[in-house]
Amino acid sequence: MKSIFLSLIMGFALISMASNNPIEPKSIKVGESSIVWTGKKVTGSHTGTITLQEGTLSFDGDMLTGGNFTINMSTIVCTDLSGDSKGSLEGHLKSPDFFGVESNPTANFKISKVVSRGTPGDYKVIGNVTIKGKTKEIKFLATVKEGTVKAEVTIDRTDFDVKYGSGSFFDSLGDKTIYDDFNLVLNLKY
Q: From the CA atom positions of the chain, what is the Rg in Å?
């Protein structure tokens, strides 16, 4: 009798486990995804793009549960300038004054927690971003809909030892001051 009872319990447990949605990783379609950056200074702003190198998102059914992304820092491009000004800014952003891409060719983001905001597809995302070998937790809101993740992220560059032109660290910069925060608009296809 005990063995029949144990067999029934184990059978129900296996059926229950089989009916749960497994966590399913999905690759980001790098060529169809975009990351747009904006950096601001006292006298204006600049905008451009940076390319995702690779990434995955994890789902439990339709529910976002995690993810991991690698950004190719050498792909920083300025889209609001042209000619020598464009080349100069892009070179400066890649230099040790900013992101030092020769020594730090990639930046990474790993989701540590996803919280539903009560509406299907709306989430608060918490994770760790690594830039120039320094890691910091960030939080942002994201929307997942029809194979796309959209989010706007604000990052304080000084948390990653990117202090060039920062009024938080240097006095008397005047109109040469560059704000500490920069923004990323993510449009990731999976």
A: 22
